[in-house]
Amino acid sequence: MFTRQLHNADTSKVAKIPDPRSPNYRMGDYGYGKQGVRVFQLKKDGPIHSVTEFKVNSHMRLRTHKEYYEADNTDIIGSDVQENTIYVHAQRHGLRTPEEFALTLTQYFIETYEQVEESNLIVEELAWDRFGEQEHQGYYKGKQHNHAFMRNSNGTHGCEVVRTRQGSPLLIGTFYGLRVVKTARAPFTGYVKGDMFSEGDMDDRILCTDINARWQYSKVVDIDFKTHWLKVRDLILQSFAGDPEKGVIITSVQYAAYVAERAVLEAMPEICSISISLPNYKHFPFDFSRFPPIEPKANVIIANPADTPMGLGYAQLDRLEK
Ligand SMILES: O=c1[nH]c(=O)c2[nH]c(=O)[nH]c2[nH]1
């Protein structure tokens, strides 16, 4: 999260071949590819259809750096080739989980093109729910539509895979963009204020955030990725909200990130590291003092949710090797 040093940074990404014509410089992170390739799969089982949609970013790092140093494109696997391969791969293997798609496609790129040193895939599912699947009332309640779907916005299931020629691929699971709010058991007190504070201590507040989590698997085989993703999601949500009646005290977004990470590492030995970032979308009670007196309703709070500026708390928790 946030800027890290650029100069002589991340030696794992440094170009292996120095530029013979420019000995004073060294190339750091590099690569190229295609962003935002949308692939939609419709499966027809007679009248019952099902749909799956992925958004894919494909990047590569080539063994040589001719395209940079020598203006020679002969090693480049065009980004349009990468894009078309995504569609061909979908046709051949089908869309199941982002993880399976990314693992098999990175393997294909590495095996097919000997100049590819590293293949990176980022895959996000743009999930669709069948009409009726989530309906708790109305016409579609209890009726599963054969061929009509609505976008599911319950948080995005995704992954990132980095595959090189040596060793097993790096697999990161991702869960982005689920907005959650809790309206009790969320104090924020005791922090440094000096004479610059505006809020003061809050014994309780409306705590609203988006869950953004990335985690690294220590193995990539024998994992049912859908089930594991749902389990991570559930553990994060449980640690934020707690028992349905009693809830759980969350003292800051920083603490929320940490307790969620601990819950995941404790329950899921196949995950070796997790990073969570949580914005804090303030919901200040609206200030009615300028307006003619209104009889306040003791049990109603009118607030003004603000997306920006927003606070942000984040942390990464790694499992220590034993
Ligand atoms: O959860 C929070 N963490 C903070 O660091 C912070 N700072 C602040 O003003 N409000 C909050 N809330």
UniProtKB/TrEMBL annotation:
Entry's family note: Belongs to the uricase family.
Pathway, per record: Purine metabolism; urate degradation; (S)-allantoin from urate: step 1/3
EC numbers for this chain: 1.7.3.3
Originating gene: LOC105231185
Compartments, as annotated in UniProt: Peroxisome
InterPro entries linked: Uricase
This protein's name: Uricase
Alphabetic keyword roster: Oxidoreductase, Peroxisome, Purine metabolism
Biased composition (Polar residues): 1-11
Function: Catalyzes the oxidation of uric acid to 5-hydroxyisourate, which is further processed to form (S)-allantoin.
Stretch list, region Disordered: 1-29
SUPFAM superfamilies: Tetrahydrobiopterin biosynthesis enzymes-like
UniProt catalytic activity: urate + O2 + H2O = 5-hydroxyisourate + H2O2
Gene3D superfamilies recorded: Urate Oxidase (3.10.270.10)
Keyword Ligase: no
